Amino acid sequence: MLLERGGEMAVLESAMTAAGAGEGGLVIIAGPPGIGKTGLLGAAAEHAHVTGMRVLAGRGRQLEREIALGVAVELLAPPIAAAGPDERAGLLAGPAIAAASLVLDQAPHPAPDSLLLGLCWLAANLAGSAPLLVAVDDAQWADAVSLRFLAMLADRAPTLPLMLVVSVRDGAEAPTLLLTHPRATLLRPAPLTRTAVGHLVAKTFPAPDNALVDAVDYATGGNPFLVGELLRSLQAEGETPRPSTIADLVPGAVLRSVLARLAQLPGDTVTLATSIAVLGDGTPLSRVAAHAGLDLVAAERAADRLATACLVRPGNPLTFTHPLIGAAVHADLPAFARSRAHRRAADLLSADGAGTDQVAGHLLVVEPEGDPRVAEVLRDAADTALRRGDPASAARLLTRALAEPPPVDTRGGLFVALARAQLLAGNPAALASLTKGLDLLDPADRSLRAHALTLLAQVHKGLDDPDGAVGAWEAALELFEPGGPEWQDVLAGYLTTTMFHPATRERAERHLSLDPQPASRGLAAHVTLRLALAGEPPARVLASAEYALTDDPVLEPGGGSGALMALVVHALIIVGELAAAERAADAALTAAGRRGDILACGYASYHRALARLRCGRLTAALADLEAAQLPYTVGWKSAGGWNGWLAAQIYVEHGDLAVAHQILRQADDRPPDSMEAALAAHVRAQLALARGDSATALDLAITAGRRLREFYGIDHPGLLPWRTTAALAARHAGDHDQAQFLAAAALDRARAVRIPQAIGTAQRVVGLVARPTDITALTESTATLGRSPAALEHARALADLGTALRRSGDTACRRPLRQALAIAEQAQARPLAERVRTELHALGIRPRRTVVTGVDALTPAESRVALLASRGLSNRQIAQALFITAKTVETHLARAYRKLAITSRGQLPKVFT
Description:
Layout: H1 6-20, E1 25-31, H2 37-50, E2 54-59, H3 70-82, H4 85-91, H5 100-103, H6 112-129, E3 132-137, H7 144-156, E4 162-169, H8 176-179, E5 184-187, H9 194-204, H10 210-220, H11 224-236, H12 243-246, H13 251-263, H14 267-279, H15 285-292, H16 296-308, H17 323-331, H18 335-351, H19 356-363, H20 372-387, H21 391-403, H22 408-424, H23 430-440, H24 446-462, H25 466-477, H26 485-498, H27 502-509, H28 521-533, H29 538-548, H30 563-574, H31 578-594, H32 598-615, H33 618-628, H34 640-654, H35 657-663, H36 675-691, H37 694-712, H38 722-732, H39 736-753, H40 756-769, H41 775-786, H42 791-807, H43 814-827, H44 830-842, H45 860-870, H46 875-882, H47 886-900, H48 908-911
Parallel strand pairs: 1-4, 1-5, 2-3, 3-4
Helix pairs in contact: 1-2, 6-7, 9-10, 9-11, 10-11, 11-13, 13-17, 14-15, 14-16, 14-17, 15-16, 18-19, 19-20, 20-21, 21-22, 22-23, 22-24, 23-24, 24-25, 24-26, 25-26, 26-27, 26-28, 28-29, 28-30, 29-30, 30-31, 30-32, 31-32, 32-33, 32-34, 33-34, 33-45, 34-35, 34-36, 36-37, 36-38, 37-38, 38-39, 38-40, ...
Pfam families: AAA_16 (PF13191), GerE (PF00196)
InterPro entries: AAA_16, P-loop_NTPase, Sig_transdc_resp-reg_C-effctor, TPR-like_helical_dom_sf, Tscrpt_reg_LuxR_C, WH-like_DNA-bd_sf
Keywords: ATP-binding, Nucleotide-binding
């Protein structure tokens, strides 16, 4: 019975109604132990059942806090297990496939970030068949990764028919990730009023006097659980209590009275209660009986007695009527008896085939005994925790394993494993663990030593000790024969760590030979990029890229995140092989989506956006950049500067200068010697030039080029065409000599690297800065760029040629100007289109303002959705592919149909041919 909880229930029922309409949310019920949080949660679940919602229920448990994603599995595994083959396939479709290994208890698990997003999509798919209530009790004891999952799910709830209700106990262990969530509605049930306490007292002691009610109210503070337990204890005494004896009671004494009531029961009953407290709520009767050393009949009798005494809920499995009772029984055990009881529990669970993470929860509180099996189980549980994305739990498990202690010959490996967990958790204690581990490792085990040194390098990097990082990498290299496969894999990692850190980059790259076919595909990615930056012919770079991508378009030893693939695609973009770059990015996106790797999706989307920008497909590039932001939804931050400069570049082409300026702030926190800072400086130069601030533009463009040369030894127009920007800035500033010098140098450099786009752009600028304008150079530029995929650069060359011809009185100017306008308007490059339109107006030509139609009329989001629909994907499949909701897909398609003047998805294939 819920007393005085009408306000809370009204909030919960209203939230569930909104969830049924597709606008879900998060409600947190917070308060001290016994205030009635569990009762409200149960009432919410009952209301959900009545109104047709599907209910997923889970609970945090103290002994299972080290089971990474334990609460998430408790929520999501049952409906998957109960589903038939076809329904299960539908629920695990799209990005939800990343969760299949977890909810079906299969290996291997994907990367933790992909796993969490997969769980979110699984919940969204479950909500697709019926509105969903996710109810979690005692969230303060939930494992850290499950809390992250719940927070991510809350982020998505407003666009889903999904509601989360979470109960949280006040105290130091309260999960701030949920309590501070911006979408949370917080309920704090108040203590019962004296009137409600009097009602409960009257149910136990009819017609109580005011003094008795006052005494119970004072002793319990209106806490519903304490009121109930106090009344049961008083009732057990067999006579009406005296108020004077109650008035001095406090909550701790009430709990002690519960233990006293338990002690009055038969010995088997006490033993069974102790076993429930050790094994935890929700344990089957047969297992509790085995732990207590009772036969099943005796255990059943004891369980019935506990239920009659209102200490345990009736039925199987066995659960205390309130967690406080179990906690009190557990705390009442003497320390060594508690340790021995948990050891019996671990052995029992292990014999029953329970997971190592469940067994490990008990072993964590067992006194060390030097048992090798204990250390082995704890290490297995730590491995599981790492796979599921909970390195802090893994570190605690490994620390306990080392305290056992394990056999001497395994301690070094355990210290290394501990250091890896500490490193992932951001704990600098990893340095001390690695130092101990390296001292204990067998010198002959080169692979494990190399792994330890790799971790050591990362720790030093994290501690801002580049010399220490370089020393560790080079020590790892020395373990293997130079040039061998293992050596190459280590070198690939070394280069990936140092490539964007000028102080260490040169020292690392002295080991890199431009062998076109190294044994390591990871090293082949680095070779491909170095060939591109060294100005090697595009054909050689393309061959190296094809070799690097032979096995898997999402490269990386050990199935990593696709960073090495990104190097290959960027190399292709630098040398102008834009079609090949886009094909590689497409393949990477397909592979990353198939295994739910969102970080690889982010890398591939970014680089496809860059390729599409170079082709002049601005809308498609922005759509890809939207997808490249996906890793930010699970906490990644490292790519902000890269995404920022590229988005700003696209908006400059669009003419949205204010937006470009705002987005560039993503790169503000990057150090001056970072590559992103140089790229951002170049975009700022273009912004300044567009505003007419030629002096600032000149200074920024030169600064961008100087940074790349000084910090990275790179001077390549395919990466950063700073000279052409600087030349145009000098021209506008009136410094024609410097402009001509910079333009000539740009053309020389472009010819040296043999890239048509760079040559054509430089020819255009040479023609512009000449005095008078060099029409021959402009004509050559249009011819060169016309043979390249760089549509916008071609349009600029046509516009400049047409302008020069018009000013010289040549009527042949009309054709290039009309061509330039068509390209610019199709790309929605508004500043260029307006400039060309002005030139045509000067000729007396009033071209109609072209209404952009087709795919280019769509926003980036509409374009992505419509393209997938044209390929036959359903709304649900599109939502899964793009990590948006089906409702959002419907909205984008409706708008796309209007803009494309079509009425159904069946007409989309013709639009995209």
